[in-house]
């Protein structure tokens, strides 16, 4: 048997694998629910349901993504009539985003899908292990100056 790749000794490799698995499972749940949206779109809809009328910058921050892909996702959701953009009357460069009525209905129909995904994927951990796992992730993010305040 050959020696494992050095890549396999790095946490980033395993975190990428875990992230891919979580996203694949969440996409399957969204497909089963006939949501008609991708995981990235679900993330934006979920954030907007809790923080309506936020800017693209803030939306990107809370999604843990860069602004450019978030702008593209918002554009797709706008075309699907799930979100709307509101331009500030005071500063035309300032745009906020909110769910439309149709977007709110979709979000309501998907209530609990994220929790169900976490429950399924982390069933191998007891409550104490899960809490430690979450605390460790947030600790590493904080070390990298990622503000987890408000999450």
From TrEMBL:
One of its GO terms (molecular function) is DNA binding. Residues 1-142 form the HTH marR-type domain. SUPFAM superfamilies: Winged helix' DNA-binding domain (SSF46785). Keywords: DNA-binding, Transcription, Transcription regulation. It comes from the Bacteria. Transmembrane segments: none annotated. Pfam families: MarR. The keyword Transmembrane helix does not apply. PANTHER family: TRANSCRIPTIONAL REGULATOR, MARR (PTHR42756), TRANSCRIPTIONAL REPRESSOR OF EMRAB OPERON (PTHR42756:SF1). This is HTH marR-type domain-containing protein.
């Amino acid at each position: 048997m050959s020696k494992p790749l050095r890549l396999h000794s790095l946490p980033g490799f395993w975190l990428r694998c875990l992230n891919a698995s979580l996203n694949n499972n969440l996409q399957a749940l969204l497909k089963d629910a006939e949501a008609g949206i991708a995981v990235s779109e679900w993330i934006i809809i979920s954030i907007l349901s809790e923080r309506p009328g936020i800017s693209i910058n803030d939306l990107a921050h809370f999604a843990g993504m860069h602004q450019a892909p978030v702008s593209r996702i918002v554009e797709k959701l706008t075309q699907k009539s799930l979100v709307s953009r509101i331009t500030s009357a005071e500063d035309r460069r300032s745009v906020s985003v909110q769910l439309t009525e149709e977007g709110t209905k979709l979000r309501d129909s998907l209530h609990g899908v994220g929790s169900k995904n976490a429950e399924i994927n982390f069933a191998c951990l007891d409550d104490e292990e899960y809490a430690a796992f979450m605390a460790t992730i947030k600790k590493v993010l904080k070390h990298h100056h990622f503000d987890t305040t408000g999450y």
